[in-house]
Amino acid sequence: MGTLRTAYxxxxxxxxxxxxxxxxxxxxxxxxxxWSSSTPISKLVFPEDDGAExxxxxxxxxxxxxxxxxxxxxxxxxxQTALRQVFLDWKxxxxxxxxxxxxxxxxxxxxxxxxxxxxxxxxxxxxRLQQPLTVIEEMxxxxxxQNGGTSSGEQQFTPEVIETDRGGLTTYHGxxxxxxxxxLDLHSKYYPRLTVxxxxxxxxxxxxxxxxxxxxxxxxxxxxxxGVWAEAARQRTGGQERKIAAMGVHLRRHxxxxxxxxxxxxxxxxxxxxxxxxxxxxxxxxxxxxxxxRAELGEDSWRQLSxxxxxxxxxxxxxxxWAEELAKRLGVGIAPTTVHQRLG
Length: 344
Prior knowledge:
- With 344 residues, this protein is α/β, with parallel strands linked by helices.
- It is built from nine helices and 16 strands.
- Strands 3, 4, 10, 11, 12, 13, 14, 15 and 16 form a nine-stranded mixed sheet that branches. It has a three-stranded mixed sheet with strand order 8-5-9, with no helix packed on it.
- The longest helix has 20 residues.
- The relative contact order is 0.19.
- InterPro entries: aa-tRNA-synth_II/BPL/LPL, BPL_LPL_catalytic.
């Protein structure tokens, strides 16, 4: 079956009557979301006519409301929550057809997310994070040139700052990055059981594999700090560690949430008008910072990779390869088509 055409639309709204938690940070709006769709979201968890076996992993990619917009982190998070709820409902009343494992992928509008450990954020810190951020999309520049245009590819955003239920401290998500959120049951009958530790390592090793196999970026893991770290960056900077992919895991009754965020071509150098990482200490790790596939390859190699035309400079390539690699490591197949869902 081809791409599902039903658009899932989320409307977010401020809720003055929403109970404020004791540790909510002032100045950050809590949101709720409403769903409307003519197709039940359960059809994405229990697909019936896509030609794949129930055990096969499904890859869902989330798009913005149109080609000029990125989906918000909020809307993607609410979409994930709705899918997870279908898994949880099944666990409360299981039958022979267990949920199919899923991977959500998307590139969000600029967003700073705060971990549940953060109790305070000073007004000046919040103001700094929400300063205008300029993003340069080179693919849009190339498309404009092909059509005779002269666009600089620059877009200016006011980043959102939101609270999450993951561990850790502040991190950034936005253009130039691909976010990968598996939704699966760690105790599913479709593959060997996973522990929290083995699942976290599975996410890290899946990311390592596609970086080594595709652009040829060598990485390492740390027992102290989760995520994937670039080996060449450590050598190049005289020992400074640079993270190329962040990881966060949230489990509820063995159903996974959150996952991995891979930096493909997000800005990681320069001043904070362009470099979102310059505004804070990533994940609260002093002396460590972020890097990207592009930064690790260097501009000449990145350009050559782009000219090769095999997609390895495109975030969609990394999203699909990551889903394929995860399925392989779980020991299951993968549905042949990536399903695109548009978030309003």
